[in-house]
User: Fold these one by one.
Assistant:
Number 1:
Amino acid sequence: MDTILALLEGNQIFTPRVLTEYWGGFVTTAQLTVLALLIGLALSVPLAIMRTSKNPIINYPVFLFTYVFRGTPLLIQLYMIYYGVTLIHGIQESVFWVIFREAFYPALIAFTLNTTAYTTEIFRGAIQATSRNEIEAAKAYGMSRALMMRRIILPSAFRRALPTYSNEVIFMLHATSIASLVTIMDLTGVAREVYARFYAPFPAFIFVACLYLILTFALVYLFKRVEGRVLAHLRPR
Amino acid sequence: MLDLHGYGPSIMRGAILTIELAFLSLLLALVLGLITASAKLSHNVISKGIATFYTTIIRGVPDLVLMLLLFYGGQWALVELSDWAFEVSDGRIDFFIQFNSFVSGVVVIGFIFGAYMAETFRGAFMAVEGGQIEAGKAYGMTGWQVFKRILFPQMMRHALPGIGNNWQVLLKTTALVSVIGLEDMVKLAVEAAKTTYEPFIFFIPVAFIYLSLTAISEWTLKWLKNHYSAGVVEG
């Protein structure tokens, strides 16, 4: 501990104060990533079911949503929600201003909508890949569509979606870095601030790059463990 | 009618800039990807190590952080270098290089997507049967002829879906270059939105341009896929 403190005193950039700022940035990044992913997950399951519907009135609006959000840059979506909402006439006097005064909520909305669009398509693919035999068996048992969805299709679809979904999680972790462009002090935001204060691009950005690398590796490891568990029946014997 | 407050032409110029940037970065990424994939598949430990390091780092760090690191870091290194040269030469060497944000954008995006392309190419190279390459060599073809006549046409079929995905992501990543000062359509839209207080009028057309670009790419990729899958029975 003493050696660490001595080391911290020895350099000019990574003082305990700056490290506390990085910690704060990490907390913001984690909050944005986890919240966006959880809300996105909850929204995308019903949307994916709607997306597999044969009725165009149900299917088409969801398709339009995923197409637009997957076909445009996340940065544009973020700017549109951040500037769009804050520049609406009268919003600053309304009750919504409590939510939109800080950039955090517009950013969270943008990230959530974006991940919802991608996750919906991931689940749609997984649902449509369900083996016909399983569906036939469920129908032969007299299951309703809802029961079949709950007992047969969704559990196996979630498993199939897991490897692709883990990519989406890592993508989201990386995507939250653009929150720093709308004044949010996430990990990247702190790094930009430290860079500007000391004019030291390499220490500021390499440090934060290492943090992202560690987080990415941790997530990859975690998902490998989970996949090993839930996809155990698919392992080569 | 849509009133763009005179920003219309400059946003169109920004759109063309985005397309140029995307194509040039794609070119660089493809070249880097091919080199890196070859290095990864080679038996040389050093080149294998460098290639693995490159692809791992790039794919584990956000694009924006890499962009800031390379752009600001590169600028800082050049300033230090020119200071050093000035001192060593007693003032005889005095140069100052201002980074061109378009070139930096191409280099940075190409460098990032080179890593993704490398993974795509590596998989595609491995998907071509070794026996075919041996057969080519047995016919007395040179290494380049084997690559051009046997490896490349078949590899493209396996690589195309991956290249297509990477291209779609690359296209959307170009929006980030507004951060390093390039006057692309995103930067112009932000400026226009701030001055006129009418954000949607500018962001919706820009979003629509991106959407058309990704849609056109999708159709083109479908066509290319059919072209390179000629004679292959699916399933």
Note: The domain at 17-230 of chain A is CATH 1.10.3720.10 (MetI-like fold).
Number 2:
Amino acid sequence: MDILGHLNYWVVVFLMMTGFYVVIASGNLVKKVVGLNLFQASVFILYISMGVVTGGEPPILRDGTDVYSNPLPHVLILTAIVVGVATTALGLALAIRIKEAYGSLEEDEIHLKETEGLNDTSNHSGESAGGIDG
Amino acid sequence: MINNPVLRVIAKIMIPLILLFALYVQFHGDYGPGGGFQAGVIFAAALVLYAMVFGIEAAERVIPAKVLKVLIATGVLIYGGVGVYTLLLGSDFLDYNTLAHDPVHGQHLGIFLVELGVGITVAAVMISIFLAFAGRGARR
Amino acid sequence: MIDEQLSVLAVVAPLLAAPLCVLMPRARWSWLLALVASVACFAISVRLFVLVQSDGMIVTPLGGWAAPWGIEYRVDPVNSLVMLIVSGISSVCLLSARLSINKEIDSSRQPLFYTAWLLCLSGLIGMTVTGDAFNLFVFLEISSLSSYVLIAMGRDRRALTASFQYLVMGTIGATFIIIGVGFLYLATGSLNMADIAVRLPDTIATRTMESALAFLTVGMGLKIAMFPLHLWLPNAYAYAPSVVSAFIAATATKVALYALIRFLFTIFGYQFSFVEMPLSAILAVLAVAAVLVASTVAIFERDIKRMLAYSSVAQIGYMLLGIAIASQAGVTASIAHIFNHALMKGALFLALACVVYQIGSVMRDDLTGLSRRMPWTFGAFTIASLSLIGMPLTAGFTSKWLLVQAALAAGWWMIALLVLIGSLLAVVYIWRVIEIMIRPPAENAPRQEAPLSLLAPAWILALANIYFGIFTGINIGSAKAAAIWLLGGVS
């Protein structure tokens, strides 16, 4: 079996699992967002590497070449990257608001405060909008 | 950082170049690699550099949050507006062919307007994300 | 001419109203604009529904590019029904939004709230009408990102953690979906759903397709809140602003479920999904587990919004069960339940919005004597609850009846029995709430009925529950047509 022939898939799988592991195992909210980013980035590579055509030129129209790489996956991934940026920004904005509301970014500490304050009626409305909702 | 003369001088030289490059990427997008997304991000990078060297307040004076909000909305409206306009002309949504007498000109005009909308929104969104995060840190 | 472009307008109307909402100087204007856009979207959906019922599928290409290259919107008997629900529920919820949101969100942030709402609506409608697999992902993310924002605007600080948790799980789900779509594209070279379906038989029996199906099912499962993947849902529904709970509970998971149906039946086809792959057994087990476990948890929940959220997980179990049966009767029951569940959960959460507005709490113990303090709200809540349990003459009964029949016809009598047990559990958790509500109130408790603009929307949906329980032409009739459309030759 030609293992290196599928190098791009190995890279994708490695990145994906690393990201997934960080999301699951890390208790820190910011690290979770970073893990999520890595997880998404692996899919970007999956798409981009599938657009390669052996011997293909960059898909810009010019004379002397008629084999082009497939530009469509790149365009799709441009969209997915934008979605990824929006997700990251929103995730970090939420992390900031959570830090302000709970005074911590660690999941277990937040959870502790949530269960403590179960009968706590304090109204948290936030002083102003955070991140991109502001 | 505000008092570091090297940074100030270099930033003053770099920022116009970055802005110019952003405009090049924006308007050359019809012929070569480029387009609204990339140009918007490069444009935003210039303002982020400005904010980092000269301070958040200075950057907010250059582009107040209110203006950014309007710009974000404007970009989307330009994009959607082109689409609705083509619908009104009787063709498909975002079918640029009918924008001008000649389909080739129509395609040029259509992609120009749409990418302009994308560029404006992306630049404004990136700047406001940066200012929202950095501004929060600076105020406390 | 205009009829062909209606599906585009349904997406564009809320999409363009959203940036205008930001620019509105007054919160009230942006509410009005959002309402107008949503009602316009509903009117378009009604028109499309009628057109599809009479003339069949409507295909709209975008940007003047023909189908396999360009994106096209397709409205057929399945998604015209889903569109109708989404835009209808959004309009009704927006009716009650003004007062409820005035109380729960600062006026400076309200324009942004309505913007996020419109974007969410636009994303959901886009997901239903699009005929392009990648475009579906984009709309899915538009709706998801805006729903994270909507949920985070809840008053309680736990809304923030709920939203964050939803963001993490939702993003993983969406990423799984693009992986699945990527595999489909790798194997077929096309992103157009109809085109993929045509090309797929050449490559269907490969491991690529099997993993594509697995990724898509798990990804959609996260968005649907399929049983073990439902962890984000209870908190998200419980701490979101009241009207947002109603809107999201009645639409978001339904649209994701529609997308799953679309992938399983239109793209992969009945043969591959249910005969060659063991999806029937997997979905059936998860569905029954959802019904039993979530209903049991709901019984012990003191926060009524959380209780209803767990009940949603259970109800989603019923819908998945219909898909798992994979017969025409099963899919009919599933689609009809999508419709009916939207009505009952919408009514229940809007009734709770009245309660939050007047009393400020939805803990079970605070609602003693609600039947006398807020009789009209109590009435709407009770009707919707009966529908949730599945009382005859309510909408909830019709789809559950179909589901039991479908299970029996497939020879799954054990499952049919478990559905009935699930309904009994629903009786228990609903009764525990109603019982507290009809206790005599404390001596000094005033009569504090909610204002009309909050009551009316709740009652519209409550009455719809009765209407569609008696006149089943629209929900059951068109669900049947949709199932025939999806399954074609398979009986």
Note: Chain C has 19 helices and two strands.
